[in-house]
Amino acid sequence: MMGKDNRSRVLAEFFKCGSSDEKGRKDKGEGLQLREIGRSINLAPTSVKKYLKELESKGLVIKKLHSESNYPIYFPNLNNSDFKYLKNLYILHALKELGLIEYVEKECSPEVMVVSGAGLHDLRGDSTRDSGEAREIKLFLACKEKRLELGGYEKDVGVKITPIFLKDFSDLTPELEEEIINGIVLKGVLRLIDVPIASKQERKREQGKQEELSSKKNEREKEEGFYSRMFSEEP
């Protein structure tokens, strides 16, 4: 369904706005009006109305009436699996078409590039990661930190883009490791440690035990050396 046709252009406007489903949200929140969409993509209101009706029939957008003016306002249906899937495709396609991946590659030459974050929907329906309000994606880059100008790309894609520089992906916090695992590799091969995340703490505890044993061993050897020298001295 995604492409450069007018229907896809109308749908893309909803990929850039938030949710309407949270309790307490007023219907003038993050929704879009018909004429607003038409002005944004330079499309006649009659055409916009036609495509909005199609998108509504497919469950991709939701129409509500303004509580005061009774004017229709349209919202993205973030509970629709097709909408989630198409939004992910849109963001990934936009990153490439806008030249962001090429720009990052030229500036940083990362060995590995992974995109993740709440701006991308979890198609498994994990509510802990699937927040309609969060519009941010993260670029995990295996390279030295460099300054990147991402403002223009953020405006075009409709999400905040946060680069996170890492020397490698082998020493991460459990939170970052989980986010990278659930992300999408844009370049390179993702090689994480081959043990469960939960075992990291166990490894640290084991390392602490080994250091403690080593310290005690050194102290014991010093004591044994002292007594050995003392008893070996001739009177």
Briefly say what this structure is.
The chain has 235 residues and is of the alpha+beta class.
What does this structure look like?
Helices cover 45% and strands 14% of the residues. It is an alpha+beta fold and 235 residues long. The strands form two sheets. It has a four-stranded mixed β-sheet, with helices on both faces. Strands 1-2 form a two-stranded antiparallel ribbon. Helix 1 (6-15) crosses helix 3 (45-57) and helix 2 (34-41) crosses helix 3. The longest helix is centred in the last third of the chain and has 34 residues, at 199-232. It starts with 5 loop residues before the first helix and ends with a helix. Mean pLDDT is 77; it is low at 19-29, 124-133 and 193-198.
Low-confidence stretches: 19-29, 124-133, 193-198
- Biggest beta sheet summary: 4 strands, mixed
Distance between the termini: 97 Å
Q: What global shape is seen?
A: elongated
> Using DSSP, what is the number of strands?
6
Determine Rg (CA atoms, Å). 27 Å
Identify the quaternary structure here: single chain
Question: In CATH terms, what is the architecture of the largest domain?
Answer: 2-Layer Sandwich
Please give the count of helices.
8
Structural class, from helix and strand content?
alpha+beta
CATH topology of the largest domain: Beta Polymerase, domain 2
Task: Look at the structure and give the CATH class of the largest domain.
Answer: Alpha Beta
Number of domains: 3
Query: Which range does the strand content fall in?
Result: 5-15%
Give the helix level as a range of percent.
Answer: 40-55%
- Main sheet: which strands, in order across? 5-4-3-6
